Amino acid sequence: LGINLHECRVSGDRGRVCKADVEAAAALKNKLPAQSVTVSSAPSSSESQVISGMRKTIAARLQSSKQTAPHYRVQIDAELDNLLATRKQINDANSETKISVNDFIIKACASALEQVPEVNVQYAEDCIRQFDQVDISMAVAVKGGLITPVIRNVGAKGLPQIAAASSD
Q1: How far apart are CA 86 and CA 100, in angstroms?
Q2: pLDDT in tens, the chain (168 residues)
Q3: Which of 66, 77, 104, 165 sits between 20 and 30 A of 25, alpha carbons compared?
Q4: Which of 8, 155, 163 is nearest to 100 (CA)?
């Protein structure tokens, strides 16, 4: 059907794209009803809402990112019992800064990018820029939208510094 699997909704077990996902993507692409989708003849109702400047910017940037940046999916199952025990131990010993699971994930991502620097790059029109330090952006929900602050030079930071930066 000429469908890129990365453009499909994933509804199969263990994060797999199934036949219905491909058919639905093809139907959207070709403006045809999908075989597995039931079409109702009753008109649907909707309500339009004016969006804020923040939401408009979020939508534009997410759309641009999806169109201009290469995307690939990585999925693993991870047992976090040891991580959670370590987190509890660190947090019990330190009352000033509380380490979150997200802080561990940020540190792990930075370590992965340091181990495989070919992925810590940015595509430009005529070149690929490879960075010598790892900056991690994280999504944060705020009232009325989403912001993505950047924690700079994560590879040089310990978990308490990452926790402080992420909470800031």
Answers
A1: 11
A2: 888 887 777 777 667 788 888 888 888 777 654 444 444 445 555 676 777 888 788 878 878 877 777 777 778 888 999 999 999 999 999 878 899 999 999 999 999 999 999 989 887 778 888 999 999 999 888 887 888 889 999 999 999 999 999 998
A3: 77
A4: 163
pTM: 0.62
| Token pair listed for 42 | 């009753």
> Taking a C-beta distance cutoff of 8 angstroms, is the pair 151, 162 a contact?
yes
Helix (H) or strand (E) holding 140: strand 140-142
**Which pairs from 161-165 meet CB under 8 Å and 24+ separation?**
162/103, 162/106, 162/107, 163/97, 163/98, 163/99, 163/100, 163/103, 164/97
Give the pair of three-digit tokens for residue 100.
């979150």
Residues near 149 by beta carbon (within 8 Å), at least 6 away in sequence: 137, 138, 140, 168
- How many CA atoms, within 13 angstroms, populate the side-chain half-sphere of residue 19? 2
Q: How far is CA 41 from CA 20, 27, 38, 78, in A?
A: 22, 18, 10, 45
